[in-house]
Amino acid sequence: MPLPPADRAQQVTAALADYIQRSNLVPGDRLPAERELMTALAVGRSTIREVIRHFQALGVVEARKGSGTYLLKPISGATIHMPLSLETTHLRDVLLKTLEVRRGIEAEAGMVAARMRTPDDLKTIEAKLDEMERVHLSKGTSGPEDLAFHLAIYDATHNPLFKQLLEQMREAFERFWEKPFDRPDFARRSFPFHRTLFNAIADGDPEAARTETLKILAIVEEDIKEMSK
Predict the structure, then answer these.
(1) What pTM did the predictor assign?
(2) Greater pLDDT, 160 or 59
(3) Is 80 exposed, middle or buried (0-12, 13-18, 19+ CB in 10 A)?
(4) What are the beta bridge partners of residue 64?
């Protein structure tokens, strides 16, 4: 009995992810041509196009006119990619809804990192924090460095789902702007709490890590409300 279309698309999605991994493709590489994928996965053109569209919607691949489809993110059959789709007519509501969900996962990530971090993890997190503080003090803002600090904390959980979920949520969150609300000072007041969050993780204190994470996110929420008036 043939698979229902939804299951089939899901199976082909997983098969394509595996194929990309087996082909040792890395972000920046071009995907094989449609015909090659059709042969490799033994499916028709429309199925391949549907799966590629799905990966595009997730920001995993990008079609470039006249050039082909390129891999933007590492992918394997074991990677969880979920579409984060919210009606975006009211940016403020979308950001606040995203933040509600992020708060629970982010606070938990801080707690798990405080329990699971290794000496090497602490070195990495502190190096990212020092860089964030250096850039922040010289430029007054430190978006990429701030992100690198948080990603190092997610790595210190030793649970790859934290990083996957939070990276995707953060992308959904930040896709709408280069500088939030064209305000480089967005969430600037959260700057000192990054050091106290690191201290909590270094001390192996999950409750303190949760508290400091929530302080950062409370400021993010206040600034969304204030700056989107």
Answers:
(1) 0.67
(2) 160
(3) exposed
(4) 68
